[in-house]
Amino acid sequence: MFCPNCGTKNENDAAFCLNCGTSLAEENISTSTEQTKEVVDSTIPVALDTTVDPATPVSPVAPVAPVAPTEAFTTYTAPVTPTPQYKPRKPLSKKLIAIIAGAAVIVIAVSVFIVVGKKSADYETLATKYFIAEQAGEWDKVFDSIDIPSGEFLTKDFLKKAQSKTATKEISNYSVNKKSDIYASPISGDKDLVDDAISKDVYIDYRIKGESSNRTDTIGAIKLKEKNLLFFDKYKISSDDLVKTGFSIVVTKGAKVSLDGVEVSSKYLKDSAAASSSSYTVSKDTYVIDYLFKGNYTIKVTQENMEDNETDVVVSSNDDSYTYTSPKLGTKIISQLATTGQDAMKTVFDSVIARKDFSTLSSLFVNDTKIQSEAKSTYVYFMDGQITTAGVGLTKISWTSLTGTAAQKSSASDGMTAVTVTVKGAYSATLKSAYSTTPSDRTGTITCYFYYRYQNAAWSLYDMDLSRIY
């Protein structure tokens, strides 16, 4: 039987629909009536063939008593309680989903926040990572771990270059040694430097492959003023073992200095000091770099008229300075000074023969009171010995040949670059004797020395040695 309301199939004698609970009584009555009708119909005799043969006598048919129709009835069935049907839940709203998702994100963010914050405050882990990176030569990681002052030469590239020749160490094993294991009782009267409010010392024992005993590195961790993520302590590794404080480069005055290709600017130039043994103008320049990574560098010194000089130096805890005050002259300057010396020799002898005052020669010498005074004394003494005021002595000279050879001195008396020009001259000369009215002719060779220095953008004499002709 099918429910007239929802169409659900039920038992034929069901009083109510199992699905929707609709009463099925009328449906049962209708069904019973139909069944009764079928029974009655089945009891009515089927009409027989009544065709009569005219020759056959017909017997009267006895009347059939009518059959009373079967009374329809309804069978009662106890009501059945319908089975509850599952109703799908109402889906969550987008707003509620967004709230749940946001809460999950907040929980994850807080967890990450706490993990990252605690990690930044774990100075032992930081020191261990620094140790591993340093031993392996991973200088990018080392640079990111250290606490360094600001400085033009304290960059990651400078650290990598400075440490490029540092041999890496192959570590067999290592372990962090707790401070209490080593410093159970600090020295009496001394502050316990192992652990204080702003610094922590981490001791790492390690064994290098091929060695028979352990080594220990002390790595200092410094707690910074700023907080990580506003709440957590932040540590960096002390750069004391990597940074040199106050490295000086001393060069001749006016020289330019570069460090690994980067010019050391004039802001690093400190007050230059004159040599104590001389009153000459200041001869040296000193550049002081406040902070510099320890390690290997190439220092280049350039100066006008000088050959460029490049030197590989090692900056360490025991190396406070580099000095280069003897630059090598270029071959062109050497050749020019050789010729300049030859010209000076001719000028001096011509002035002597004419008994000219020193003022006619003063421009050849360095413009310095002491140098000018000494040069004048040398000139007058030579002139008086070569020819008298009465005209006795050298009266005429011609040079058949002059050969000048210039050589750089290792240093001048005040540390400035100096050049000695040796001039050899072959001459023909006429001398007048005090005992004869007839002049005499002489030939021969002499050697004189002229000393030059570069000052005030020019090469000038600061001394000379002259040889007399007799």
Automatic annotation (TrEMBL):
Residues 2-24 form the Zinc-ribbon domain. InterPro entries: Zinc_ribbon_dom (IPR026870). Keywords: Membrane, Transmembrane, Transmembrane helix. The chain crosses the membrane at residues 96-116. It holds the Pfam family Zn_Ribbon_1. This is Zinc-ribbon domain-containing protein. It comes from [Clostridium] fimetarium.
